[in-house]
């Protein structure tokens, strides 16, 4: 059996609930590629996963929610910032599956106008019927979730806790599966690519993609753009999770040591704080392609791709896939940072 077949068989054996619209489109960004005078750029539209305005967390939730169901949970608990896309997609998934949902939201971003705690993702969390618990930015999320779980258990509920970003080995399986999906699309379009570039934060997306592509298409580089302003910590987490995914799926051989690539320099001062390069990237993609990016993740990731192209990291013969991980509901609470006159 080839590594691809082994990976596919191992993934097929993992419990999974269908939540996402798959496969997501893989489309050329022709006008952007021309404007940058660099490699050909394709976009993998994981902002279009369909559930509750979509995004990368829906792929992870297909595996995480299956685990919750196996454990007969009746309530999903998860955590994130006030404008967390992961939290919003989890609230939507819980609603769709008929489960209660309680959210530990922390004020981690030292920025935000009056709209920040009312519109965008948090507005949608509440619309999906989830209960929001707001905490200070320095709150220990794990401890707050454990305390919440205890309170729910005391009332006879069966909570299932999902970590920040859905990033554990189970969630990351969603992106090992996405690697197979991408490979199939590239084969169907008769293309070979040099790299996949995307925003990396809690690490599950990059870990799953890295493990998956190392098994099925090892010539493709997976380049995570740090959006946390903590590249060493993100890289460590991606490496740890990628090894865990590899051990779980056992495609054969070893995960190559050099397969984890984290690009620093595009996060700005902190997670969630706007940068000029992010604004420019959002504006460029909107005006050239009618494509919406977001201020926290995909805008900074595109700024990273543009920065790498301008630095000559890729040639005109290369083809790069930009993985659009979603996040567009945050365009609204961040409007003060994005006015473009
Ligand atoms: C969560 C998120 C990411 C980062 O994915 P991780 O798996 O947490 O590294 C990127 N983009 C968007 C829009 C996200 O919501």
From TrEMBL:
Q: So where's the catalytic machinery, residue-wise?
A: 84
Record-linked Gene3D superfamilies: 3.40.50.1100
Molecular-function GO terms, alphabetical:
D-cysteine desulfhydrase activity
Spell out the Pfam families in the cross-references: PALP
Positions carrying N6-(pyridoxal phosphate)lysine: 57
- The answer on whether this UniProt entry bears the keyword Nucleus reads no
The cofactor required is: pyridoxal 5'-phosphate
Report the superkingdom from the record.
Answer: Bacteria
- Please verify whether the record's keywords include Lyase: yes
Cite the EC number: 4.4.1.15
- Keywords, in A-Z order: Lyase, Pyridoxal phosphate
Ranges for domain Tryptophan synthase beta chain-like PALP: 20-326
Family indicated by similarity: Belongs to the ACC deaminase/D-cysteine desulfhydrase family.
Do you know which PANTHER family this protein is assigned to?
A: 1-AMINOCYCLOPROPANE-1-CARBOXYLATE DEAMINASE-RELATED
For this entry, the protein name equals D-cysteine desulfhydrase
